[in-house]
Write a structure and sequence with these properties.
The chain is of the alpha+beta class and about 625 residues long. The chain contains 15 helices and 28 strands. The relative contact order is 0.11.
């Protein structure tokens, strides 16, 4: 069983969300995406974001030895107010000239207007409008229909467009949309070049933003919409190959770029992408029993052994200083879209309240307890002094045996290199991503039995708070793991304690919990073959032998203490713990004791197998 795989949940600039998949096709692995290197994260979820720590944490995971993780994006997707939900940017190409359908009856801000019809045809979500008045014209999409009958527009209207402006609607040829929801795609520009015989060339480029992966430029030399069986049928090709865009045929399929001077260059920007972060809440991060979002999705991924939710303690950056990107001289000149943040009212994320933040961390621990084979890495709030953090977990109710033995708390926050330069060259971020990488590094190099500590961290410049030896004594007594800077030795994780409460000393160290979980999982899976077998002496003897072989191999690799196997483990599966009353219930009980920490104390658990599956009981 692998113990090095981490699961992250947080806010990303792009990436799949559960609502992107029809209910009949939905699978957790479509949204909880398996990532094996930083470049994959960039391609799927985008780069660093001013609103959230997820990208920094995943980068820290890989820089510190992590090999595999699962990432789940959190955003508002189920709000009754559709204007608050994350949305996919798009642009509908015209098949002809725009036809007047009415005027603007009233405006509510720059994104919402009422339409007064002068004809029989109305406007709806996805329509492409031409709005003219006050000497200016603007092409804009209808993003959604609001409950009050108003149109939610995909881009902010020009200030000269007021009530009474003429509204015309273009007939549709087809729609190009972003590969995933978010304002990132408001910076995607698409160049269409009609060719002959019903074909066209297409180029998609992300040309704004300092944190985007290099080379986000895609070119398709020949696409068609006339034959869905053709190798170059546009919707099929883009769905299979493009990381940026998709194409849907919702009109005639015949492009008419001369329908309006706006399209003379053949270059358009996608519109209407929204991040859906302004109204983000606890439930968007955690999900629920039947709400398969956020943390709930990781419950369906059996491989995950480490949980990290750095955005549980997200704080808004004090300074937003986004540098402008240079234009691409190889593309025709085109007016850049408005600033992406200003063009998305949902872009600015609000931190969770302190109460919701702790509740989310409690749900992390609860998931670990229920699933048994994973641990939660807890981040304290930013800016806490040493005296504050010592009693923080206890005061917030996160310490309660036996649940808290599945969690570990690390302090302080760390300064990481920041390509966004939001507040100088470094940004202060939570430590959980770094620690997840250290756990993975130790597991892969030595095994889960070794404490994930005394490892120099990478992708870090400094610690938020220097900690002395005397101060660490107080942190140790409160089960807070220090991260310290040592002259000549770098910044190191300098603790491996769990949050195990008073009276739970056997589980004081997090590697004990992780090793025990790994052994329990391995033993449980190794004994599945016993289901539906006759519970007799032969079966119990065979099972005892197979478990002895398994545990001996773990002991030989240094996973258990003791100079001989009798000091390291025992297996009891005979008539004393399988009396007739147990057999009559269709159960097979096997007791296993293992010595993890000196002195040779045995941590004991039972495996109960029956027709409904296996169950682990710790003593």
């Amino acid at each position: 069983m692998r113990t090095d795989i981490a699961g992250f949940v947080g806010m990303a600039e792009r990436g799949p969300l559960p609502e992107d998949f029809p209910s009949g096709e939905f699978d957790a692995s479509l949204v909880a995406v398996k990532i094996s290197k930083w470049a994959e994260y960039l391609a799927i979820f985008g780069g660093f974001s001013e609103y959230g720590y997820l990208a920094y944490a995943v980068r820290a995971f890989f820089e510190n030895g992590g090999a595999t993780c699962y990432v789940v994006r959190a955003a508002v997707t189920t709000s009754a107010d559709s204007s608050q939900n994350a949305a996919r940017a798009s642009f509908t190409l015209p098949s002809g000239a725009a036809v007047a359908i009415g005027t603007i009856g009233s405006l509510n801000g720059l994104f919402e207007c009422a339409l007064t019809l002068t004809g029989t045809e109305a406007a709806g979500a996805g329509d492409l409008l031409l709005i003219s008045g006050g000497g200016v014209s603007q092409v804009v999409h209808v993003s959604a229909m609001l409950s009050n009958g108003h149109l939610l527009l995909a881009a902010a209207l020009h200030s000269q467009l007021v009530a009474g402006a003429t509204v015309s609607k273009f007939p549709a040829a087809f729609t190009i949309s972003a590969a995933s929801r978010g304002r990132w795609a408001n910076n995607v520009r698409v160049q269409i070049t009609p060719l002959d015989a019903g074909t066209f060339a297409l180029r998609a480029t992300v040309d704004l933003g300092p944190n985007l992966p290099a080379g986000e430029d895609e070119y398709y030399r020949s696409l068609t919409l006339t034959d869905c069986t053709s190798y170059n049928y546009a919707p099929t090709v883009l769905a299979a190959k493009s990381n940026l865009i998709r194409l849907s045929l919702n009109g005639t399929g015949q492009i008419n770029l001369g329908a309006d001077e706006t399209f003379n260059s053949g270059v358009v920007y996608l519109q209407g992408g929204r991040d859906g972060l302004a109204a983000i809440k606890l439930q968007d991060f955690s999900g629920g029993r039947s709400d398969r979002r956020g943390l709930r999705l990781l419950e369906d991924i059996e491989e995950v052994a480490i949980l990290a939710l750095p955005d549980a303690v997200f704080q808004k950056p004090e300074v937003l200083q986004m540098p402008a990107a240079a234009s691409d001289p190889c593309l025709p000149p085109v007016t850049a879209p408005p600033d992406a943040v200003a063009n998305d009212p949902t872009a600015i994320a609000a931190p969770l309240s302190s109460q919701d933040s702790v509740l989310l961390q409690a749900r992390m621990i609860d998931q670990c307890v229920r699933l048994r084979y994973r641990v939660a890495l807890i981040d304290p709030p930013d800016g806490q002094q040493i005296e504050q953090v010592q009693g923080w977990a206890m005061a917030q109710g996160l310490v309660s045996s036996p649940s808290s033995r599945f969690a570990a708390l690390y302090y302080p926050w760390l300064d990481a290199p920041d390509a966004l330069a939001l507040d100088g060259p470094f940004r202060r971020i939570p430590p959980s991503g770094y620690v997840a990488g250290v756990c993975a590094q130790i597991d892969l190099a030595y095994g889960v039995q070794r404490p994930p500590a005394n490892v120099e961290l990478q992708f870090v410049v400094d610690v938020e708070q220097a900690i002395s030896d005397l101060q660490q004594q107080g942190l140790n007594l409160n089960n807070v793991n220090a991260i310290r800077s040592f002259p000549g030795r770098g910044i190191r994780v300098w603790g491996a304690r769990s949050l195990a409460g008073p009276g739970d000393e056997d589980w004081r160290f997090i590697h004990v919990r992780r090793l025990m979980s790994a052994i329990e999982a391995t033993v449980q899976r190794a004994s599945r073959w016993t289901v539906f077998q006759s519970n007799d002496r032969g079966l119990r003897t065979t099972l005892t032998h197979s478990l002895n072989v398994l545990l001996e191999s773990i002991w030989a690799r240094g996973g258990l203490k003791g100079t001989k196997t009798a000091d390291a483990y025992y297996v009891k599966c005979d008539s004393t713990n399988n009396p007739q009353s147990v057999i009559d219930q269709g159960q097979l009980v096997c007791e296993v004791g293992i010595a993890i920490a000196a002195p040779m104390e045995f941590l004991v658990f039972e495996i109960r197998q029956d027709a409904s599956g296996g169950q682990v009981l710790e003593h």
